[in-house]
Design brief:
Blueprint (H helix, E strand, L loop, with lengths): L3 E7 L2 E7 L5 H8 L18 E4 L2 E4 L5 H4 L3 E3 L12 H8 L9 H14 L5 H7 L10 H16 L1
Parallel strand pairs: 1-5
Antiparallel strand pairs: 1-2, 3-4, 3-5
Helix pairs in contact: 3-6
Length: about 160
């Protein structure tokens, strides 16, 4: 397969990359677009570390071919802050000390963002269900849930 230029709508800007169409989006984000916040975890869409928003939906980027993301709006963890200001969700994670090693947090922030965009007043059960597909080996789950609920209360206020 030969590479060709593909334009991505990435964090509100156009990013042109020269890559093969079947290259996983994750590799393009990290290696071609220099966005290191999205992490490689398992490579099989099972851990959640590589999640990005595609047209507002949290999806694994490790097994998404580049061609399938080309015409869609992609938001990575770097795109959650605006004009250098942290989102309410990012600030809540800091306030609740919701990360230990931080490896899983970018994917969790992405899925929590999707949840809060769809449900401005989630319950604890809603948060746990939305984040169920994410693995955190540090055991920060309770602090993560508190952070999402804190952000929801600030956004709803």
């Amino acid at each position: 397969m030969t590479s060709r230029e593909i334009k991505l709508n990435l964090n509100g800007r156009v990013c042109a990359v020269d890559a093969e169409e079947n290259t996983p989006l994750l590799y393009v984000l990290r290696n071609e677009c220099d966005l290191k916040g999205t992490r490689f975890g398992c490579g099989a869409a099972q851990c959640g570390s590589c999640h990005v928003l595609i047209d507002g939906v949290s999806v694994a980027s490790c097994d998404m071919p580049l061609w399938s993301a080309a015409s869609k709006a992609i938001v990575t963890v770097e795109g959650l802050s605006q004009s250098g200001e942290l989102s309410a969700l990012q600030q809540a994670f800091i306030d609740e000390q919701a990360a230990q090693c931080g490896y899983c947090i970018s994917g969790i922030l992405i899925s929590a963002t999707e949840l809060l965009q769809k449900n401005h007043q989630p319950t604890e059960a809603d948060v746990r269900a939305a984040l169920d597909k994410h693995l955190c080996r540090c055991g920060s789950h309770n602090r993560i849930v508190r952070a999402v609920l804190r952000a929801a209360s600030k956004v709803a206020a």
